[in-house]
Design a protein that fits this description.
The chain has about 240 residues and is mainly alpha-helical. It is about 65% helix and about 5% strand. It is built from eight helices and six strands. Strand 2 and strand 3 (about 75) form a beta hairpin. Helix 3 packs antiparallel against helix 6 (about 155-180). The longest helix has 24 residues, at about 35-55. It is globular. The N and C termini lie far apart (about 50 Å).
Length: about 240
């Protein structure tokens, strides 16, 4: 049973949000499946390539005792599923909050202020840690995303900054389950010379910024595809 630890964590994290996606009387989120899965795949492919590279560089690795044993480019099948199933569950939380609480939204002035602070943090940490590849890449990519937010002022940030606070709660528990907080040994282990050495529970701080970039990137691509493919407006869009 231990060999299914990571696989079950992926499936259980995904299963409840996925089942609720079919509820017709309210969100019926599955109607957006084409745009949503396209967004997950488009953004996820970049992060999978990054993940494979870091695996080859031994920036992180995977403990075989918690895996079913199938690896592709040194990376376990469970890690590939992570980039499909966990983003679905996480971004579903964002759109659930948008649906049920459409009026809870940051005004543009506050959103802009938060963006500038986040950009400064991301850029500052990246610049002062050029010798730590995971820190440089996670904070650097985060800073680039925030720079894009400053330039393009995507409206999705007004909600996503709030949603991420809620998303972070299950993300914390899932990632801590992978990094050894609830198991004898970690499923995913890190070379701490390539990160700041700061842990949130048992996961590196970098994981939090990696997660934000992945999920917000998916939201942005999803919104673009949803508009391009003329999906009906959401309840929140009607409320504007």
């Amino acid at each position: 049973m231990q060999a299914y630890y990571y696989l079950l964590l992926d499936i259980l994290s995904f299963s409840v949000p996925f089942l609720f996606s079919f509820e017709r009387k309210r969100m019926y989120f599955i109607q957006y499946w084409k745009a949503f899965f396209s967004a997950i795949l488009l953004v996820g492919l970049f992060f999978i390539a990054w993940d494979i590279y870091f695996t080859y560089m031994n920036v992180w690795g995977f403990n075989d005792e918690y895996l079913i044993g199938l690896r592709i480019f040194r990376m376990p099948l469970e890690e590939y599923l992570f980039f499909l199933l966990i983003p679905y569950a996480s971004v579903f939380i964002h759109y659930s909050l948008e649906y049920f609480y459409p009026k809870i939204i940051l005004n543009q002035k506050i959103t802009n202020a938060i963006t500038y602070v986040l950009f400064a943090v991301g850029l500052g940490v990246a610049v002062f840690n050029l010798n730590k590849i995971y820190t440089l890449c996670s904070f650097g990519l985060f800073a680039l995303l925030m720079l894009g937010q400053i330039i393009f002022k995507w409206k999705d940030a007004n909600r996503f900054y709030l949603s991420f606070i809620i998303i972070y709660i299950p993300f914390y528990f899932v990632n801590n389950a992978l990094t050894g907080n609830y198991s004898e040994n970690p499923v995913v282990f890190y070379d701490d010379t390539e990160n700041l050495g700061i842990r949130v529970g048992t996961m590196p701080l970098e994981d939090s910024f990696y997660c934000f970039t992945l999920l917000y990137g998916i939201v942005l691509v999803f919104e673009y595809l949803k508009n391009k493919w003329n999906y009906p407006p959401s309840k929140a869009e009607y409320a504007k």
